[in-house]
Amino acid sequence: MLWSKQYYYFDLDQWLQEHKSHPLLESTRHDTRNTEWFHMLNADVISMPDKWEYPWYAAWDLAFHTIALSLVDFDFAKEHLLLMLRSLYFHPSGQIPAYEWNFSDVNPPVHAWATLWLYKYERQLGRADLRFLERSFQGLMLNFNWWVNRKDPAGRNVFAGGFLGLDNIGVFDRSAQLPTGGSLEQADGTAWMAFYCQCMLEMALILCEHDSIYEEVAFKFVEHFLWIAYAMDRLGEHHDEMWDEQDGFFYDLLRLPDGQAMRLKVRSLVGLLPLCASTVFDEDAATRYPKLVELMALFRKRHPQVVSHVAPIDEGFIGYKSRRLLSILTKQKLERVLAYLLDENEFLGPHGIRSLSRYHLEHPFVFHVGGQEYKVQYLPAESNTGMFGGNSNWRGPVWMPVNGLIVRALLNLYLFYGNEFKVECPTGSDRFMTLFEVAQELVRRLTGTFLRDAHGRRPVYGGTAKFQDDPHWRDLILFYEYFHGDNGAGLGASHQTGWTGLVAPLLDIFGRLDATRTLETERGRMLERLVREQVGGEKSEGT
Fold first, then answer.
1. What 3-state DSSP class applies to 521?
2. What's the rounded Cα separation, in Å, for the pair 295 and 306?
3. Helices marked H in 213-316 — which ranges?
4. Burial class of residue 33, CB neighbours in 10 A (0-12, 13-18, 19+)
């Protein structure tokens, strides 16, 4: 098996009886901000990040878990997504609890994407669960509004969600007060919201097929996306955009108390996440929803400078086979970001995309304030900082979930740009690939982490002789939390089957996907073919 179920059960009533005088209970009783959270009832079977080191649920981990879980237990996967949107867990404000020991931390909003995946996949089995989609959509609407109202306090369509699950990736602890004062405008937080808009738009368009009232709701998310994309790089050079035209990369923006702003020039996943906010729509999406088309035309008339700033501005909005694209990156920006992504001296490691550019090994980013030095340096394995406890590292290793979203983005962009758009892969190799071929290459590197190499060794086990050579251990694959940025050795929790289990659908899909059919076939029909093959073992003609 490529993954295993893990369970967590917590009975609040029993805990209250056993811990009547617990100091946490006493302090929480008098904290009116947390009273409603404290009464949240955790009494369900829940998939956990890791049954040894992390035996508790984590909201954004859980969304990725459902993708792997869906290969064998669809009902269990769907129930997990609905669980976090139910009244027993979901805050009245719309906030999703991060994990049971800190409800108020903010995790990336990936639940809409996971909901879409499960709905579309199951629909191809002939049992479209519209009630599941609509129930999820209602809760996600509240959560989306919570993000807009709570995480964009200045109303500039830029977002600061805190650490956003990436632990120590930043110069500072992004969940704490900044040593400089002021605020942090996050490239990843803003990109996550653009991605959220795209997923909600797709869901609304599906619901439009059953109730036309969702057309205006769909426009709400188009409008949000356009303003977010514009906010990340306004027309002109204002020196306070996240996009750095000279470098060709997105950075977090530090806004100081006096209103001035500066980019924190760390090349990390923070600047790659805008790439993930790339969603393609088939040709009929522009004609099936007249009210939506009317509202978009009105918006374009009123805000031409905003619309002109959304990809792709150089060739209009029509791509291969008349497909449409929503993306933060124009074609020119895409080329520049991909040059970093596919550079083996930057992000492209032998086993996937690193979370921090290897450039920072010899060129660490250093920031001085208040007599203290803050440094971000490439660390391919364990962290050397105590930030977030020191047992998690986003300063160099490969993490499977974000790599999976990058693969998704590459496939979407391929559907739009087709075979004419090629990039150098690896950068500097003089070898040019289509974006489909780039996605294939990335998946080859990711899955190669677990497969035997030419010497019969699995990179995931590094130099651990017991796991490499002992016949009783060498074929029992462990799914680690993250992986060494230079050699693929497993790091962190060793049973992180949840989101590292994403390697299972990647192996499955890319074992049967080919470029020509992917490009020429309408997205729904392509998914239908993949699902039939995966579930029923059917083979389409020519495959």
1. coil
2. 15
3. 214-232, 269-276, 290-302, 304-307
4. exposed
Q: Give, as one character, the DSSP assignment of residue 95.
A: P
Residue where the block lists tokens 């306090």: 153
Give 61's DSSP letter: H
Comparing 238-242, 313-317, 475-479, which segment has the lowest mean pLDDT?
313-317
Residue 448 burial class via C-beta count within 10 angstroms: exposed 0-12, middle 13-18, buried 19 and up: middle
pLDDT tens-digit series, residues 81-100: 999 998 888 999 999 999 88
Interacting residues of 357 by C-beta distance below 8 A, sequence separation 6+: 267, 268, 340, 346, 347, 378
CA distance 154 to 398: 34
Residue 404: closest CA among 110, 106, 58, 99: 110
- Measured in degrees and rounded to the nearest 5, phi and psi for residue 360 equal -80, 0
Nearest one of 18, 115, 68, 59 to 501, comparing CA atoms: 68
Tokens standing for residue 333: 């920006």
Residue with tokens 């290897």, as numbered in its chain: 358
SS3 labels along 156-200:
CCCECCCCCCCCCCCCCCCCCCCCCCCEEEEHHHHHHHHHHHHHH
Round the CA-based radius of gyration of the chain to a whole number and report it: 23
Q: pTM of the predicted model, to two decimals?
A: 0.90
